[in-house]
Every structure is written in structure tokens, then in C-alpha cells.
Amino acid sequence: MHADIVVLPGDGIGPEVTAAAGEVLRAVAQRYGHRFRFEEHLIGGAAIDATGEPLPAATLRAASSADAVLLGAVGGPKWSDPKATVRPEQGLLAIRKALGLYANLRPVKPHAAALGASPIKPHLLQGVDLMVVRELTGGIYFGRKQRSAGPGGNVTASDLCEYSVDEIGRVVRHACRLAVQRSGRLTSVDKANVLETSRLWREVATQVVRDEFPEVTLEHQLVDSMAMHLLAKPREYDVIVTENMFGDILTDEASMLAGSLGLLPSASLGEGRIGLYEPIHGSAPDIAGKGVANPYAAILSAALLLRHSLGLEAEAACVEQAVAAALDTGRLTADLAGRQAAIGTRAATAAVIEQLQLPCQVPELRD
Ligand code: IPM
Ligand code: MG
Description:
Oligomer: single chain
CATH architecture of the largest domain: 3-Layer(aba) Sandwich
CATH class of the largest domain: Alpha Beta
Radius of gyration: 20 Å
CATH superfamily of the largest domain: Isopropylmalate Dehydrogenase
Number of strands: 12
Largest sheet: 10 strands, mixed
Helix content: 40-55%
CATH topology of the largest domain: Isopropylmalate Dehydrogenase
Bound molecules: 3-isopropylmalic acid, magnesium ion
Order of helices and strands: EHEHHEHEHEEEHEHEHEHEEHHHH
Shape: globular
Strand order of the largest sheet: 2-1-3-12-11-4-5-10-8-9
Number of domains: 2
């Protein structure tokens, strides 16, 4: 197959980990006879420095006509002055919105080799396999932001949180389709005891499941107790659907089940085939440019790209197996290694590529 992939390295460790994921995709193309064309564009702080804008028109144009977009990370201390009006993160939010990518899939499946890196007791982690579906283009992230000066110079700031029935319904449907393919269990997370948007969320989720997915078992959880249950009994959950900000927070928390933020990939999807794939870890400015960043989350994001945008399920599974095998053989980056010897970004990438050359145990693979 032929595919056009737009790569947006962004800031911090973004360029290092997207380079790693790009190498793995090239190895997949070579091994399985595909042609992937890569085109790099600017986003985030790097784009602000070069053009003054966090999402230049050329980047959005290229992304809109690509088959898939692979993104590293945006942001860093250089651009984080609270008084700044132009910020790297605006580029990320704008591209998610412009491409209509409202469903952000964040799988969390702890790997045996990384259990030691998790602060959670290993027996609680056996068998954990979560799919968090985070709403990505609505809520408080996108509502009106304001500041006003009150009496006596008492400045007030506000961020509006809004959700419509349609916005809630489409992401809940996406989560239901995933639940049907998995265990049939869906947990919807909200704060319905306090927020009106959450009460609407709960109503819509209940109705969508009742009317369209009767085979799905739906449970509602309040976000505060969900934060606790995620650590206390993570095995009891499967597909979790929630609004934008709750999903952002709960998935950083859930990454601790996997041992490191450096292991969690994500896929941002909408109605079309185009998707945006990015590790959830962010730009990690403290380790940027040192060659020590964990590339596995970016590589696993490339696997999601193969699966969801290119329809290459077998190749995606082979990349996931190759990462698992690299971890199994002790190829651990500094975030995972503990007292063991750590390897750098390049060695971890090479380990995955080496594994990809071996036979891959996936049914129906055209070798
Ligand atoms: C994420 C990140 C972003 C978000 C930031 C960088 C804007 O934390 O993808 O989880 O909050 O969505
Ligand atoms: Mg986040």
C-alpha cells in the first residue's frame, strides 16, 4: 500500500521520538512491501519560533490531505510565560479541532517487564487492560476564556465548559463500538453531582447505550472516585469514556499502571480515516536532546497509525509485539530501568527494528 504520512516533531523530545517511530515505520514498509512517504512540518513552539504561529497554515494543509499524522509533543519553558498570548499548546488543540478528531483512544496495558517501574503493587496490575476514550475537541479546553478586572483590581478569570448532546453522543458511540469488540463493559466518568455538563453527559451516555448498544453494560463513575479506583482495582475496568479534561488527568494517572508515561500511545480519531497519533507523554524538556527519551510510546503510536488510518492490523500487531519483545529482553530506557542498566533512544529503537525482522506470530499476516 502507499500512504502519505505527515510528521510533526514539535518540541522537546518530540523530534527524537518521532524520528524513532519514523524509522520503525520505514522498517515495516520495507519488510511488508509498503510505500510510506513522510513529510515533516512545524507545530508548537518550533512553529512559533519559525513563523510566529503554533499551527502554520502549511502544516494544517499538509495534515488535512495526508493519510495520517504522527506527532511528537509540544511545549516547553521557552514558551510558557503565563503572559504569552501565543502558546505551543494552541497548535495542538487547533489541529485536533480542525481535523475533527473528537475521540482520543489511550490504551493502557501494563507489560510484565515494566511492572517494577510502577508504584502500584504488581498483583494489582496483572491482567489490567484499559482503553480510555477521551473526548478531545470540546469541554473546558475549547470554551471561552476570559479575564476581567473586578472592583479594587480584583482580577477574575474564567474558562467555560460546554458540551452538546451531539458532541457527547458521538464519542460515547465510539466508546460503545470499542466496548462491543472487547468485554462489553463501559464506564462513563463524569462529575454529575456538581456539573451541569456532566449531568447532560450522563443522560446522553445512558440513552445511547440503552437505545443503540443494548449489549453494552454501562456503569457511571464520578471522576474523583474513578481516580481512586484506577489505582485500587484497575483490573475491574475495560473501556472508559470521559470528557476532555477528566480524560487528560486520568490518563496521566493511568500511565503509572504501565510503569511510565513513556509507554502510553494515543490515537485521535474522527469520522474519516485520517487520524493523529501521538505519545501522551509531552515534551519532557528536562531530558530533551540527550538521547535518553523513551521512544516506545511514539513507536506504539505508529502501531495505532498502521491499525486505524492504514487498516494494516497485522503490521500494527507486529510492531506491538516487537516493542513487547524489546521490553522482555530487558531493553529498558531510564524511565523504566530502575537500578538496572538503561539504554538510550537509539538503542531502544534498534531493538524494536531487530525484533521486527523476526517472524511475527500474527494470524493472516502476508509475509
Ligand atoms: C495531552 C497533553 C495536552 C492536553 C497538552 C500538551 C495541551 O497533556 O495530550 O494529554 O492537555 O491535551
Ligand atoms: Mg495530558
